[in-house]
Amino acid sequence: MAAHASAPHETGPVPEARRLLLVSASMGAGHDSVAAELAGRARAAGREAQVVDVLDLLPRGLGAGLRGCYETCVRRTPWAYGALYHLFFRLGRGRRPNGAPLARLAADAFMTSVRRSRCDLVVPVFHLAAQLTGELRATGVLRVPSTVMIVDFAVHRQWLHPGNDRHLCVSEDAARQVRRWLGGPAETVGPVVDPRFFGDGTGTGARAPRERAAGRPGTGRPAVLVSAGAWGVGSDLPATAGLLVEHGFRPVVLSGRNERLRRALAAIPGVTAPGWVTDMPRLLHGCAAMVDNAAGQTAVQALAAGLPVVAYRPLPGHGEQGVRRMAALGLCDLAADATGLVDSLDRLTGPGPERARRVAAGRALFRDDLLARLLARPSQVPSSS
């Protein structure tokens, strides 16, 4: 790829972005939901916004193969994914592999999308997309500024490419990590969720509406959402669901598109296994807490809905690192064992000061000016939040 003669980073005052190109990836559903929400907000504000999938931009079915390999790995050999994460993703000094060579394979198709969209800002919301835009900015091929939306609490090295103009982060802790490793602009804008997720967060006091939403009226048992992501991935989820039933909770287990897991869960008395859910705000508002294993988009949706989050048996790699960051920030409990899980849920599902503090900490993450921060072009943004 031949570089343009001009420097890749623009200087001087420029107007707000009018046409956005968001670069997502269909790895599960979280990145796509962030891209869709950002695009919807931009359009509502009178901007143009398009979304492309970086996996679709890779040649010869490589993206589909990458997606399939990742899904198989986290389902069947999560220890192997943990090892890959340690090698490719974990922050640290020294030369290690990165995603830039793979990202370059999508460059031609991506630049075609840039030209067709006539965008004046590109927004990667997936780490491979951030490697792609960073490479193209660094070489001068991409003349449009790139603002990376980092959706993880634990920032890993594949999010970080010095060619990108700036980074928007879900927490100040994440923004500090970016500034430490790159030395470039990183701002705290909070997580991205549909406004419908914001509920009252009052706990189990309004018990009848919560029970109706979870589909088991009149039981008097607090509903606890157990999340396994869009792919239905987790460590012995039927055992976790059975444990919750045994201790007086009503587990509602999200098995995503994993029909085999859904059938296994549905066979357990006292467990609700709804399969693929199209109205997540309503479901979350019908529950008293959430058990999580990945610190992903469902976790931040739960925080928006006013649900305390308890991490249990996190997925190796990004899941484990993410829930540890959340726990360090006071956003979730990290249960070491079954006893710890039950103890946390006993403390957090009923009304009281501890639940109120946890709900307030989750809600404090969210910012009202996220869209304004996103639309601001990089030369308008200071180097710290």
Q: How far apart lie the N and C ends?
A: 35 Å
CATH class label of the largest domain: Alpha Beta
Q: What composes the largest sheet?
A: 5 strands, parallel
Strand percentage: 5-15%
Please tally the helical runs, counting DSSP H or I stretches of 4 or more residues: 17
Helix/strand/pairing class, anyone? alpha/beta
Total domain count: 2
- Name the CATH superfamily classification of the largest domain: Glycogen Phosphorylase B
In the CATH hierarchy, the third-tier topology of the largest domain is known as Rossmann fold
What's the shape?
A: globular
Gyration radius over CA: 21 Å
Structure description:
The structure is a single chain. This protein is an alpha/beta fold. The chain has two domains: 19-192 and 366-380, Glycogen Phosphorylase B (Rossmann fold, 3-Layer(aba) Sandwich), CATH 3.40.50.2000; 195-363, Glycogen Phosphorylase B (Rossmann fold), CATH 3.40.50.2000. Helices cover 42% and strands 13% of the residues. The protein is built from 17 helices and eleven strands. It has a five-stranded parallel sheet, with helices on both faces. A three-stranded parallel sheet has the order 2-1-3, sandwiched between helices. A three-stranded parallel sheet has the order 4-5-6, with helices on one face.
